[in-house]
Amino acid sequence: MNRASVLKRPIVTEKTTLLGESGRYVFEVESSASKHDIARAVEWAFNVKVVNVNTMNVTGKMKRYGRRPTKQPDWKKAVVALAAGDTIQLFEGA
């Protein structure tokens, strides 16, 4: 899998900001990406050492547009733990 296309976007919320203080960062990733693909992509993109990757498939919510109920797309989230001392500047001071 192409490393550049594995990571879609960082997820920046209050909860993920608190995780960032302990060296864990959250990304939306390609649905077909494995944990090894995600680890390699983060190491390649940010020059850090990845220690652990946790993934979860997030089910899309049901929404309504007028009378019609529609479903938002499903997506995959990855929580990446970095080695001690490593940080990602994208999340720091954003």
Summarize the structure.
With 94 residues, this protein is of the alpha+beta class. It is 26% helix and 37% strand.
3D architecture notes:
The model has no long low-confidence stretch (mean pLDDT 93). The radius of gyration is 15 Å and the shape is globular. With 94 residues, it is of the alpha+beta class. It has a single domain, classed as 2-Layer Sandwich (Alpha-Beta Plaits). It contains 3 helices and 6 strands. It has a 4-stranded antiparallel sheet. Strands 4-5 form a two-stranded antiparallel sheet.
List low-confidence stretches: none
**Order of strands, widest sheet:** 1-2-6-3
Proportion of beta-strand residues: 35-45%
The first-level CATH class is given as Alpha Beta
- Largest sheet descriptor: 4 strands, antiparallel
What is the CA-based Rg, rounded?
15 Å
Distance between the ends: 29 Å
Q: Number of domains in the coordinates?
A: 1
Give the name of the CATH superfamily: RRM (RNA recognition motif) domain
How many alpha or pi helices? 3
Spell the H/E element sequence. Answer: HEHEHEEEE
CATH architecture: 2-Layer Sandwich
The general outline is globular
CATH-derived topology:
Alpha-Beta Plaits
What's the arrangement of secondary structure elements?
Blueprint: H1 3-6, E1 7-10, H2 14-21, E2 24-29, H3 35-46, E3 50-58, E4 62-65, E5 68-71, E6 75-82
Antiparallel strand pairs: 1-2, 2-6, 3-6, 4-5
